[in-house]
Design goal:
Helices cover about 35% and strands about 15% of the residues of chain A. Chain A is α/β, with parallel strands linked by helices. Chain A has a domain at about 80-315: Type I PLP-dependent aspartate aminotransferase-like (Major domain) (Aspartate Aminotransferase, domain 2, 3-Layer(aba) Sandwich). The first copy, chain A, is globular and about 55 Å long. The interface of B and C includes residues 152, 155, 157 and 197 of B. Strand 1 of chain A pairs parallel with strand 4 of chain B.
Chain lengths: ~425, ~425, ~425, ~425
């Protein structure tokens, strides 16, 4: 049976969005490829907005998941103990925390990014007894009221229908030309007449995905950590999108050498695209009472199975090395594009597999992404004016697939910059 | 491999809760039964707090899910169109909406109860341009800041770490003896000097699960609907726990004959315990802009597959009739218990498969539930003082299983009321 | 020089209000009489909305004030020490606090009612560490954001332009027919699932002036006090309008025998209509740091002079007795009116010199007040729909003046109820 | 009768503050001199924190006020029309608004600075339909919750006991070395992902008094005005302290050539130290409904009388010229002090009669002010760490008085810098 898009137009709320950018009905996917009902094949440089870092339907995980299901393994268990959960905890500790000398308690806050962010904000306020949180320009942390409060996008904020409170936005790295954004932040904290109280926490992404592929420098991150320490502020890293290898290491902040107080993870954590999230908490901050934060789907055993399997990728150092090689190919390609097509007025941005080109030409990035879709490449835009087209292939893509995708992208750029731009 | 509970104590945050009430490691489940790693069998009168209304690992859904996975069906697709989603939309319309003469748009707000509640609150505020929402005493709607604002429990509210705003709590049905709670509500709305503004919405559960199995009368629900209409207030029914058959009909409000403006559904919607939620919106209120509310896991294709399959149960009228028969068995049993064990100081409460006994003896309900667990019956308590022990078997339980569970429960009551109570 | 009303229309903001109800230019006043520029004489049953309880330009105070001014007495002194302030403090203690066995610290929070209310709310929150305050339906406490939050009137609340927070409104005495409003309040406080947190304070007027001359019973006030004690909630009595003798005793709550934690006073406190306010605080709650609440006009020495003089009235017991006699005349008159003019659909309300008739006929009270003005009697309306016409003569009015005013009022009633009512 | 300070210690709340800095009981004052009960004479370089710009008990105003009182002129009239009010309106228009080509409606918001600020904030929110207001670091606008929200001082903010909302603080002129503070502001407004919404208003003082005598440059003020225009933001100038000649012109912003949307005035407006405030509103923003903001003391007729008289000073151009001459004397003196006493680590700041020295030595400014008091000069400190000693003599001081005061100040500086500093 094939379906047409009318079903979605007729039955689904106007809030639907990606179906508008990618107007076809998908049916199958494997690795870095997707197929629609008409049988058309697409290369996926979108990866579920970072939820499919290991590609679609990874064969090993798929096998383990099917075995688990057919053996009547527990599916849903709230936060009761299950064998699948025990194995995830054990493997996460062995593969991720221990080798990085990280001592953290694990909280299951509900299965989505916004669940982990909300749990982190609540905990930081409880631990410190303070109400304000400092977020950063163009941060994106989720759509529930707590997370939306620390999200920068004005359209999304207005969607709240109420004033969003208890938050102060500070400038992210490189926000104003030639001004060190942390000088500004420190001045506010240092001055008791500034109107900005010492906050419970700062929350930030090390590379801002939705905000336009803005990568903070490692020095900036280190200085943020030291400011937090100086003032007794909890540092929350939202690694929902940048984590799980997207920037080249399991945690995005590893190369900066910092140790956040709280870490938010979701998206690719299950490895298979299943809803799953955790909040990592330094033991000294593990102060929630039993059940003080809860949720029906905080234990998704299917996700435990695939997540445990996915962690095996990180047992082999070669995995990170391969990411690095492919990252370099992408960044070189992007820099080449910027130079070769000056009509782009482009700037290459990002790190690892979280890269893109910001174009100063209004509307151009969206046109390029639309053209790419037409040519069989799935890719989205981001940034406050959708000025950036993002490259988010699966980490597991092979070089052939990568080059094939980049070739389609160049074709899309070329075709688009030649058109007269009309908005 | 068997695991012990130390793993959870050492690695999981103090916030963990059900693992404390049910201290064993579960490994397998089918229908209304669960097994732990030691092979002990349990009867499940908990059903994942209402997320497993069709029992564990339903054989038909299991088969369809495995087929889908092995065929490389799309797993994760944000809100792109997929065949699995098209089929869910179509079947939901045919099986649920059309036969009930309900015209609603469907929103995928993220996969959990709190996601759908947050989307409903945001939408109501946007549509009306008002900020306040009326919630009801002992309501429970979720743990993210928007949903927590409309949740009554003081321990959970304090967990927010910030004052919760833009909400007015009104008394639920039968809140104060001999006083009609809606007289009170109407007086506040009618009086321009009351300090209570006409709100964007009222949000309520028709039977309060976490709040202590309080069932509103149909007359009360009808009057709430008419008050909402009179004042142009949107009526949001949170059917996350009471919906999907838990009270005997697909929507809990069907027997009251009301048509809410917005309906929140999750928990048992996937049929299989997978994270999944929808928000149903009357077409005239479908006013979100594209992407104004979004989320990574708003399209969980595994859940589409099982949810579509689960809807088949509702094609046969016998399903509702069977629920009714078994409901009556449970309620009769509970009333018998209240009479037979006056030490309980008990009151039977609820409707359908959402029933329990409220005991006036401090701490007694928790003791009964603990005893039941020991004897192989899984059951939880609720209410502001955990004064209610809840019976939440799967709807699909057979009469044998039901009676077996009730027998264990009676044994637990008997054993407990004989002990001297010490707190 | 005489002025016309155009000056006000042209130059004053649209927010002006009493100039619309009393459209003439006043120039002189003495005792209970006022004169406009045309020489027309008015009897004053308005008393500056309770700010002129001793009438206009009291001769003794006038003399002392002029002596003070001509001797170059300090006029403005923030909260420096001045002789005039020392004398006020001494006399207030001797005349008011000591004889009533009241031990309170005196705070000068700025010279208006809203200043004292804001200081009380801030202090209660600081002392208890809680954020919420319980206010009551139809309470009126001022127009700055803190005070406006606890004010019931919806038109005034909307004037804030922001959602008003940290407040829960509870029903005042007799709010819903046949329901004891404190049953609701206690139920909410007692139930940890009610969504209503234990507040920092309750704030209320013993007789609501702007809210429609609603007088709480002494039993109700006593029960409120005992609820506050039980829960460790601070009781704030806003005696700005009902205090300084308006209800027959210096503090309005004296006959109920309660001892509020914080008392707000202003309006008639200066005795002469000068801006002046104090906040009385039980010593154990006197926890502001020096300067934590301040304000330029918190020491108005002219007001100290007249306020000290005004306190002499309270040295003679005959003063309260005279008020009682005249109060009875007024209440008898009002009850007679209600009976004699059934067209009023009236109800006599209030206590002491704070009385009026609530009419069930839409718009009638405003018409009566307008007619009275025409006939030389100044009087205003109150209540959420302006349904009450208020009698607020000076306490010092003689019986002749009182009867003259009542005669005009009856004439106004008679003339108005005979007109066909058109809104 | 003489009083001692015990009365204040025993009876007044701990919140009292200036009585601690100036520990004596004042009794008389004239022009720039004050006397205490012991007959000691003081030179007043404090001027009631800017409320006595024309000195104490100005002889002309004194005479008019006494005449008015003795003639039984209306004292209190809420916002009824009175002859005294008509004359104030007329004279204010003729003397102040017309000659400056300013078209504004006049609102009487209650008699204090915080009343006018609250009215301005409410109006701006109502007019624009937006909730946020931008304030600036170290701004000071009052102690009621609305005004406190836009005040920077952290000790005062904590006094609120609740989180202060709907406000974003931006850096005042010269806040961070070598960074143009308006670059930040514009970047935040321009970027739809910044998390900072376009506000209803910006509120600022042109010279920050309490904040530490920070004077914004005229260019900065002009740029703020143009940013407000560009974004449709209302510009509110809080001229409560800097207005009425304190900086050399009637409005402090005159030399910058800007026309604020709303102007807040109080303090010296009555001319005599009486509580009085107005809000000036561009006619197109005059959108309050009648009575939407009100208050008992919004018409203080004594203040109308003295304010009208005070305006005569501004009829003669010589008045401004004299201020200029004396300002220059003060600034030259301060710069000389900085140079002559390097131990001060001082910086001369301010404009007009609103000047001072910021000392980098912790606690030094407070010591100098204390020494000056001992030597007969009244003077206070300001700034987040009380690091500035302020010179605020009356504008009407003669050169002799000024030099006498400066001589005492130098003596105080000299004596203090020689002491070993111990905190």
């Amino acid at each position: 049976m094939t379906h047409n898009l009318n079903i979605f137009e007729n039955m689904e709320s106007e809030v639907r969005s990606y179906v508008r950018s990618f107007p076809t009905v998908f049916t199958k996917a494997k690795g870095y490829k997707m197929w629609d009902e008409a049988g058309k094949e697409y290369i996926d440089f979108f990866s579920g907005a970072g939820a499919l870092n290991y590609g679609h339907n990874d064969t090993v995980m798929q096998k383990k998941l099917v075995e688990y299901i057919t053996s009547d393994g527990i599916t849903h268990s709230l936060d009761m103990a299950s064998s699948a959960k025990a194995e995830f905890l054990t493997k996460f500790n062995e593969t991720i925390l221990n080798p990085r000398d990280m001592d953290y308690k694990i909280m299951f806050p509900g299965p989505t990014g916004t669940n982990t962010v909300e749990s982190a904000l609540k905990l930081a306020r409880k631990v410190t007894g303070r109400t304000d949180v400092i977020s950063f320009t163009n941060g994106f942390h989720g759509m529930t009221i707590g997370s939306l409060s620390v999200t920068g996008n004005s359209m999304k904020r207005k969607g709240a229908g109420i004033p969003l409170q208890n938050v102060v936005t500070m400038p992210y790295d490189n926000y104003v030309d030639d001004q060190d954004s942390l000088d500004y932040l420190e001045r506010f904290l240092d001055d008791s007449g500034s109107g900005v109280a010492i906050p419970a926490a700062m929350i930030l992404e090390t590379v801002q995905g939705e905000g336009g592929i803005n990568a903070a420098s490692f020095e900036w991150l280190q200085k943020v950590e030291s400011i937090c320490k100086r003032w007794g502020i909890l540092l929350i890293i939202d690694d929902v999108q940048a984590g799980v290898g997207r920037t080249g290491t399991f945690f995005s902040f590893e190369p900066a050498g910092i140790k956040p107080d709280i870490i938010c993870m979701s998206k690719s954590l299950s490895g298979y695209g299943l809803p799953f999230a955790i909040t990592l908490i330094k033991p000294e901050h593990d102060k929630f009472a039993p059940g003080e934060h809860n949720g029906t789907f905080r234990g998704n055993n299917h996700a435990f199975i695939t997540a445990t399997s996915a962690l095996s990728y990180w047992e082999n150092e070669q995995f990170e090395k391969d990411i690095k090689v492919k990252s370099d190919i992408m960044m070189n390609f992007l820099e080449e594009m910027v130079e070769k097509y000056p009509e782009l007025k482009g700037e290459a941005r990002g790190r690892g597999f979280m890269v893109g080109i910001a174009s100063d030409v209004d509307g151009l990035s969206n046109k390029i992404a639309a053209k790419a879709f037409e040519l069989g490449l799935i890719m989205e835009t981001s940034g406050p004016k959708d000025e950036v087209f993002k490259l988010f292939p699966p980490l597991t893509i092979d070089e052939d697939g990568l080059k094939q995708g980049l070739a389609i992208l160049e074709e899309s750029i070329k075709a688009t910059v030649k058109e007269p731009v009309t908005n």
